[in-house]
Design brief:
The structure is a homotetramer of 365-residue chains.
Chain A (H helix, E strand, L loop, with lengths): L4 E2 L4 E6 L5 E7 L9 H11 L16 E3 L3 E3 L5 E3 L4 E6 L21 H8 L15 H15 L4 E9 L2 E2 L23 H13 L6 E8 L13 H10 L4 E6 L10 H4 L3 E3 L5 E3 L7 E2 L2 E2 L4 E7 L9 E4 L5 E4 L13 H24 L4
Helix pairs in contact in A: 1-3, 1-7, 3-7, 5-7
EC number (chains A, B, C, D): 4.2.3.5
Catalytic activity (chains A, B, C, D): 5-O-(1-carboxyvinyl)-3-phosphoshikimate = chorismate + phosphate
Pathway (chains A, B, C, D): Metabolic intermediate biosynthesis; chorismate biosynthesis; chorismate from D-erythrose 4-phosphate and phosphoenolpyruvate: step 7/7
Chain lengths: 365, 365, 365, 365
Amino acid sequence: MSHNTFGHLFRMTTWGESHGPAIGCVVDGCPPGLPLTAEDIQTDLDRRKPGQSRFTTQRREADEVEILSGVVTDAQGQQVTTGTPISLLIRNTDQRSKDYGEIKDAFRPGHADFTYWSKYGVRDHRGGGRSSARETASRVAAGAIARKVLGPGIVIRGALVRIGRLAIDRSRWDWNVVASNPFFSPDPGIVPEWERYLDDVRKSGSSIGAVVEVVAEGVPAGLGAPLYGKLDQDLASAMMSINAVKGVEIGAGMSAAELTGEANADEIRRGADGKPHFLSNHAGGVLGGISSGQPVVCRFAVKPTSSILTPRQTIDSEGNETEIVTKGRHDPCVGIRAVPVGEAMMALVLADHLLRHRAQNGNRG
Amino acid sequence: MSHNTFGHLFRMTTWGESHGPAIGCVVDGCPPGLPLTAEDIQTDLDRRKPGQSRFTTQRREADEVEILSGVVTDAQGQQVTTGTPISLLIRNTDQRSKDYGEIKDAFRPGHADFTYWSKYGVRDHRGGGRSSARETASRVAAGAIARKVLGPGIVIRGALVRIGRLAIDRSRWDWNVVASNPFFSPDPGIVPEWERYLDDVRKSGSSIGAVVEVVAEGVPAGLGAPLYGKLDQDLASAMMSINAVKGVEIGAGMSAAELTGEANADEIRRGADGKPHFLSNHAGGVLGGISSGQPVVCRFAVKPTSSILTPRQTIDSEGNETEIVTKGRHDPCVGIRAVPVGEAMMALVLADHLLRHRAQNGNRG
Amino acid sequence: MSHNTFGHLFRMTTWGESHGPAIGCVVDGCPPGLPLTAEDIQTDLDRRKPGQSRFTTQRREADEVEILSGVVTDAQGQQVTTGTPISLLIRNTDQRSKDYGEIKDAFRPGHADFTYWSKYGVRDHRGGGRSSARETASRVAAGAIARKVLGPGIVIRGALVRIGRLAIDRSRWDWNVVASNPFFSPDPGIVPEWERYLDDVRKSGSSIGAVVEVVAEGVPAGLGAPLYGKLDQDLASAMMSINAVKGVEIGAGMSAAELTGEANADEIRRGADGKPHFLSNHAGGVLGGISSGQPVVCRFAVKPTSSILTPRQTIDSEGNETEIVTKGRHDPCVGIRAVPVGEAMMALVLADHLLRHRAQNGNRG
Amino acid sequence: MSHNTFGHLFRMTTWGESHGPAIGCVVDGCPPGLPLTAEDIQTDLDRRKPGQSRFTTQRREADEVEILSGVVTDAQGQQVTTGTPISLLIRNTDQRSKDYGEIKDAFRPGHADFTYWSKYGVRDHRGGGRSSARETASRVAAGAIARKVLGPGIVIRGALVRIGRLAIDRSRWDWNVVASNPFFSPDPGIVPEWERYLDDVRKSGSSIGAVVEVVAEGVPAGLGAPLYGKLDQDLASAMMSINAVKGVEIGAGMSAAELTGEANADEIRRGADGKPHFLSNHAGGVLGGISSGQPVVCRFAVKPTSSILTPRQTIDSEGNETEIVTKGRHDPCVGIRAVPVGEAMMALVLADHLLRHRAQNGNRG
């Protein structure tokens, strides 16, 4: 079933294909009275925009967002949300559908081509149709509104921590360098290495996977629920909803399997401010599905794009064996542009849980 | 917000605490006319039941399930589902609440104690209350009904593939040995090693993490959706909804980040039967959110239980610093009993998606 | 699709058939820390209980409710909600399934028998199965918890305002007499008339319809939404979800069609307390989907029960023509016992909207 | 909570205000492969369009719909749905916001002005903002897609059956005349009477209520569920979700309260075709929440618009007493244009239930 709504109280419904006239989303459940302009959203969109370096797709999209509903100019002359659905529209301007003629009838191995065909029997093959990474622009736009709901006290930042076998050195982590390199790397030392490596990948028409890490600081203790409405469960769903993601981790993640109870226990002391002070964060800020007040830490693996120049064996829609080579303009490492997308998904989940928390605990202090 | 319903069309709502009179669930959306008896469910429940070896908690629960609604004896004398909600009840019989007196006012590091208190300001501290692994009995019971919906053609099996640093040897994988060792190990060779290791863990009052792998064979191509209603997204949500899970992987999982596009592409040939034949399964049976017809492969990491005998630094509910030691009866490796739970969650997700697929594609052949 | 959950944030999932071992429900989304005992719920249940006068079914059910989860004894020794799902169980004790032997294979005209069979191809014919009015006991139990969420400032009361062609005289409306007659009539003057009329109906084995009115006072302005999340929309859904209801009205209801804009306008003055004071309430307390602060007024029509002693022409499950007479124990006017059910549904809708309002407007004063 | 999504499997999410740049909706869950063009939708939209006679608002809107996603040209050159979300956009072209200057700070009695302000503290007062009847264009557009899902075998038609105290003569009912008079009247005899009456209403700057009846023929038996997923419950919700609706009836509706069990029973005979043949339709085609195969009949009352020229007493946003007169261009009888809206809501509910039925009963013949 195709149901393109994400979130329970703070909801985003996205629509649009890579090569249609436009993409967009409807953000519903936003509280009233929040200042919101197109510029607020554009800032985030520009970070995800393709064509900003030689390491991402060369498709050129202005990615200009229009707000079609849900805001009004208040008595003070400020544009604010009204509490009604916010419709966002982003025109597609640089489709080159003819690039896709050759793959019209054959399935790219590792791509949704085959399964989409199996399910629907009809598809918009151009640019991956609905499965295109282009859809993530809508997520980033909605995420910008989610950040408004969270307010300035909650800071969400993402970074690329691995490309292929080249992982960052965590001891050099510096949030300040993330914006100043084309990879969203928090480790300045690895940037030249990644540049050389990705240039090779790009020139050979290949592609490579990556790992993104998103951290939310300032999240109050208490968001989430013990089971089913778990904060980490919704983060897992959010990140796995992004195209090409194959694994999601919270805190220690898969390596939690290798820890003893003693090592895994994040011991607690009373801080100088009288508040709980944790001595480590294996939990990634989530205990029993509920935020602990520590930074919420989520990582996800993005597989290499399946659109590569190396010929691969496949079949066509008649079931005949053939070979396929994908031209068009593709990201050699689609994980790079997934960084702002991961941030947006984190913001969407936290905004949703903040509203949920208010609903159930609004009667408490 | 505490919302204890899982699934969209095939839905399970669970309820109950570790030390209340009973636990249970309501399974809603089940198609009518499926044969179903309490025995069908009991078989699965017995696999998860505690106290079956020295490697799981020594709490003794009969875990006998009662079906309170949703079935009727048909004209042929067979008990079948009616299409109305199926209410399942499992009495708690072996609570020892006094074991928990000492942890009433202090928070176990790494446990939901602290966050639960932060959120609700009131809690049932005995046995973890709602956060107890005991709740997973309801999941296993509901999963048994989900298997009925899927029918015999879809086979879901789980196995433990890692305890701490000791991973299985995949070349020795044999589904037939899973039921004949206390670890659900598919690798007979590692069993003695795990026994020695877990005996040490248990005797020292410690605990250790593990990795579970669940595989569904016979899943037809076409279940899922390109975005948001993705099969892998719902699997991530399902597995992360289980207590103590910190990471989820589909197919290659986190290691997809280290692959090139060439390596990751599961090439396709025409099989002898005329059907698509994949040469590898890095995708884990899910491409672009939709099942490909290959086995669906999901793994998840279970952290070590936080209830250990080693004293840990913590605070109490007044914020004072203290130390904590958890007595009571705990699983030294709670990942073991998570195997049938993971199978159940896989069954629930697939049953839900099978119904969704029928809804949207019922007009196709 | 059978989905037996009602409500968005404050949710009730009901289960159970008339002639199974028990009925019950799970109430999810309840805020923590509310005092709640079985006695609190029993009070409401006893008002709906059958067999309390000769004007309702003679089935005798104790309707004793057990709370199986979601509450704990707090530090002050008071039983309070924990914020986790509350499971309620009511045993069925007085089934007489043999009464239904004769209608096993024929369909009662005006009853769900025929459509249920058409849909499911299998049914529990005894006592209407899932379609039995017995299910409404679960609603009343859940409604008692909803009242706790609303608090003492919001008072919800229901009354019977019409039986067949005999409507009450509204000028004699007195809430104090509702509990002291077997009809929940607010008009003491009509009681003897209704007694005589219903005795005739009952003795002749017939049945008759009725109209119930439910009024909620003390509802603050601002609950609901302009569209789709409308308070009146959810009330319409709630009341029409009750068995045998065929029409729902808010305020002026169907007669609003006969009003001019001038007559329909509930003019507003500034009250002595400085608050808005409405001069009339054609709106029934809901304007544009949002509560106005006036009493919320909802009415619904309950059709006569289709289980009557007069033979009616029908067909059997083979399609053959036949006649049917329904024995068993039935309500001559099932609308009477619908009064506490209507109150419960009003309470459920308001509790849900109160939580929704907190979620979206929690950031306002 | 503002949640602007309607439907469970076949879903519509609407957005937009009366005086914003555009309105629109996203239709999600639509099966793939259905032929769909903008023209298909335009036909329905044109029936609802304002300014087509002197009896509706004189606002002139082209109401031209654009399809922004979810369709593709298939191999046969036909534009078909792809199974992904369908985004529809309708530009607003004839706003006259200055008409609303005078009502900026005062609340129209009987209008959402007051409650909207109470809830949100900010509003787009122009043309009623989100509460405007303009939003219903989105519903009609989505309804046109729902009709495609239902196919030509299910015919949904609406009519106006009452304006104020002037009800139609049902013995003269003729569907063929509905399109040929400005009121959607099925009774040609009442048209001159309504014309004279509405001319008076219009000239005096007043307004009047109306009743709409919607009938769906060809609906198969079996859609719906015994409880909560009831077809009539969802119809009640659908119709009450339309602005200005105050009452909803299924079949006999409120007058079912006046019927005996004998009179209410729709007796069944075996028809010449071997199928069940009902002798009457008090049930309105829905028994126990499930369609019976008879025509589904739903009626709803639309209150008079509150925007009238007669001065009414009210207060302003500061709480001061004042008088209000609403200029602007308003429908003297907004019930007229509600006819195609009611049809659309019926189509949306039936399409949703058709998909639900396939989901749960897809395994049956």
